[in-house]
């Protein structure tokens, strides 16, 4: 699994000119699912995402979690996070999960975050989406299997 987390003041996703998801302060999460990913692996990422302390406390230190600031989440599926550009100039996506598995885990992540946090919005799986955001900081974190094993 590969996850890009952007701390945002607001974010939205539009499909065919219609806004299908929008949040205020929180995380825009770009989620890539790999062939080897499972619900157990997803649970580790979800736990890490919800516990990341990257919001400022009263002293301006990044010491507060998403839950502590009552933040919101917008999750956008993005298989292109698995692009392999080592050979040639055309990316290879061989390590990305197939659509059925990726959609299942994407929906699992959405449901799990919703159950633990509340406010969760989503992109359209496999859709041609336009994503807008106001990045706060900017503050961007990348999680992948090498960085999210604990």
Describe the structure.
There is one protein chain. With 150 residues, the chain is α/β, with parallel strands linked by helices. It has one domain: 3-Layer(bba) Sandwich (D-tyrosyl-trna(Tyr) Deacylase, Chain: A), CATH 3.50.80. It has helices at 39-51, 99-117; strands at 2-15, 18-23, 26-32, 53-56, 62-65, 72-77, 120-122, 129-143. A hairpin with a 5-residue loop joins strand 4 (53-56) and strand 5. Helix 1 runs parallel beside helix 2. It starts with a strand and ends in a 7-residue tail after the last strand.
Secondary-structure topology with pairs:
Blueprint: E1 2-15, E2 18-23, E3 26-32, H1 39-51, E4 53-56, E5 62-65, E6 72-77, H2 99-117, E7 120-122, E8 129-143
Parallel strand pairs: 3-6, 6-7
Antiparallel strand pairs: 1-2, 1-3, 1-8, 4-5
Helix pairs in contact: 1-2
